[in-house]
Amino acid sequence: MDICIKCKTGLWTVVSHCPYCGHAVAGAAKPAAAVRPPLPPVPVPMPVAPPVAPKPPPVPVTPAPAPKAPPKPAQPQPQPQPQAAPKPVPVPVPVPAPAPAPAAPVPPSPPRKWLRWVGGIAVLAFVIVYMNGKPGSKNDGACNDAIDSGLKLVANGSLDGARQKLATAKNVCTGKSSAKADDLQAAIGKAGAASGSCQRGVRAIERAIDGHQLQSAASGIAALDTDCAGAASVASLRKQLARQQAAAASVLVGVRQALDGKDAAAARNGIARLEAIDREAVELPQLKADVQALSSPAPVSAPAPVLAPAQQEPAPARAVERSAVAERRPLETSPVDSGAAMRSEMAQSFLRDAERSLLEGKFDAAKTYLESARRVDPGNARIDNLSRRIRERERQVLQTETTIN
After folding, report:
1. Do 203 and 236 touch, CB atoms closer than 8 A?
2. pLDDT tens per residue, range 343-396
3. Which of 149, 260, 377, 400 is 20 to 30 Å apart from 291, CA to CA?
4. What share of the chain is helix, strand, coil (3-state, %, to 5)?
5. Alpha carbon distances (Å) from 35 to 22, 70, 71, 146
6. How far is 395 from 73, CA to CA, in rounded Å?
7. Within 10 Å of residue 382's Cβ, how many Cβ atoms?
8. What is the distance between the alpha carbons of residues 366 and 360, in angstroms, rounded to a whole number?
């Protein structure tokens, strides 16, 4: 085997020119000038093959006879070596397919399990609600049943049964439903106030107050049941009774002061005023007894000198008895003879009490005294004037309080 001097490539056959670089080979027989082998346009192969590509097995080259050598260089046999370069084709570029492996860090699976649990719980709650009704439906149903039953009982006049249903409704009705229980209670109160027994009791109380029987009126109010006692008419009667009782207490204080001062006339006038307000006052019997004792004449201090002449001369004794009777008679008959004067005096006393209450700002007490004065002496001209003054003063106070607020 020869080696080309220029390209240093091994020549397997004897050729005149190197088939790789075209340089003349020394010592080779020169072919005829007419036959000139064409230069192959094959580029110079790299001396070092890539390590990845395996080398092809050596191709056995059969030595050709010498005369046939010149035409052979036109087709270089070592050409198969460059064909080995395409061998890297087995290296598949799509091998990066395992690249999706980084997607493994995305683990949204735990949240999905949590969502599954939440969804399961929601479905279970929906099933329970559907089977048992909406929350609070049982209480609402019991509340509505109690209210409806109570209203029916009220309409039928069975207030005791309605009160039992009201107690049940107060225990069951909660939240906004509690207003229904209040409505049932108001209906029971109205029915109780409109019942026949309540109306009869109210009329009896009114008659007792008009008849100046305050003790009977107070007992009648205390005997009313709860529903009737809460009626507006009973509340008005209760206020009227309180005013009358306050006036009677004031007159009673005046009578006691007159008795303490040994003023029998003022005490009698006070007793008359007290009877005009409350004929059933517990203190009246005792007050009358005290006034009677105060009005009776004092016993004779020295009866012995009077009795001695009476035994000798009976006539003077009768004269003494007549004089004593004459002294007592004006005291006993004076209230009867001066009835109009006594009524006028009582009316004046009531008017003075009314004026004092007006100055103190006690308008209810002033009105009560004024009504008592009108009953005793309806023709008194001061009553209307004082009544107008009370109304004007009360209106001024209300306007002042409204302005301040």
Report:
1. no
2. 777 778 788 888 888 888 888 888 888 888 888 788 887 888 888 888 888 888
3. 377
4. 65, 0, 35
5. 15, 9, 9, 131
6. 144
7. 15
8. 9
Distance in angstroms between the alpha carbons of the first and the last residue of the chain:
134
Q: How many residues in the chain?
A: 405
Amino acid letter for position 142: A
In this structure, are residues 181 and 203 in contact, taking their beta carbons and an 8 Å threshold? no
300 pLDDT exceeds 70?
no
Instruction: Specify which residues 17 forms β-bridges with.
Output: 24
Report residue 79 as tokens.
């050409």
Residue 377: closest CA among 336, 337, 349, 353: 349
Helix (H, G, I), strand (E, B) or coil at 311: helix
Token pair for residue 107?
């683990």
**153 φ/ψ angles, rounded to the nearest 5 degrees:** -65, -35
Cα–Cα distance for residue pair 332/297, rounded to 1 Å: 11
Per-residue pLDDT tens for 133-171? 554 555 677 787 877 887 777 776 676 777 777 788 777
Distance CA 166, CA 182 (A): 9
Q: E-strand spans in 161-313? A: none
Token pair belonging to 39: 């230069």
Evaluate if residue 329 carries a pLDDT over 50: no
Radius of gyration of the chain (CA): 69
**Rounded-to-integer distance, Cα 10 and Cα 52, Å:** 25
Residues 227 and 212 sit within 8 Å (Cβ to Cβ): no
Answer for the pair 202, 233: CB distance below 8 angstroms, yes or no.
Answer: yes
State how far the alpha carbon of 68 is from the alpha carbons of 19, 26, 59, 368, in Å. Answer: 15, 19, 20, 164
**What's the rounded Cα separation, in Å, for the pair 263 and 337?**
19
Long-range (24+ apart) CB contacts under 8 A made by 229-237 are: 230/189, 230/192, 230/193, 231/189, 231/192, 231/193, 231/198, 231/202, 232/193, 233/193, 233/202, 234/193, 234/202, 234/205, 237/202, 237/205, 237/206, 237/209
| Domain extents in the chain | 1-80, 137-194, 347-405
Q: How many CB atoms lie within 10 A of CB 302?
A: 7
Which of 101-115, 194-208, 337-351 comes out lowest in average pLDDT?
101-115
Instruction: Please spell the DSSP secondary structure of 115-151, one letter per residue.
Output: HHHHHHHHHHHHHHHHHH-STTHHHHHHHHHHHHHHH
Whether the full predicted model's pTM is greater than 0.85, yes or no, is no
